[in-house]
Design brief:
GO terms for molecular function: DNA binding. Helices cover about 60% and strands about 10% of the residues. It has about 120 residues and is mainly α.
Length: about 120
């Protein structure tokens, strides 16, 4: 892959659109929450923490619209809906797990560096 100007991430490039979709804060966290198999909406809210039901629904719809998440409705009373990764979504499992592992290992250092910069500039 070349990083020369004009070869990657052009405004109308599919790679750029894909990066925009999966790089949002809630998309990555939602995809990670689905890596172990089908999960119901309420369970996702609990797993993710800090996300509203509305934002989760918007995130799931966007991921579903782009073929990364499958929504399955079961004909039961009351209706049951589960979300899972599609085959395409499964291809993101290893990169997301690797990124999550990196974040766990380096999160404190990143936060500490940021806080140090804020202190040195006098902003909080």
């Amino acid at each position: 892959m070349s990083l020369r100007p004009g070869t990657v991430f052009l405004a109308d490039c599919p790679a750029r659109l894909t990066m925009e979709i999966i790089s949002s804060k809630w998309s990555v966290v939602t995809l990670f929450a689905l890596t172990d198999g089908p999960v119901r909406h309420g369970e996702l809210v609990d797993l993710i923490g800090g996300i509203s039901r509305k934002v989760l629904t918007q995130t799931l719809r966007r991921l579903e619209d782009h073929g990364l998440v499958r929504r399955e409705v079961f004909a039961e009373a009351p209706p049951r809906v589960e979300y899972s990764l599609t085959a395409l979504g499964q291809t993101l499992k290893d990169p997301i797990v690797a990124l999550t592992s990196w974040a766990r290992t380096n999160g404190e250092a990143v936060a500490g560096h940021h806080e140090g910069r804020l202190r040195s500039t006098g902003t909080t």
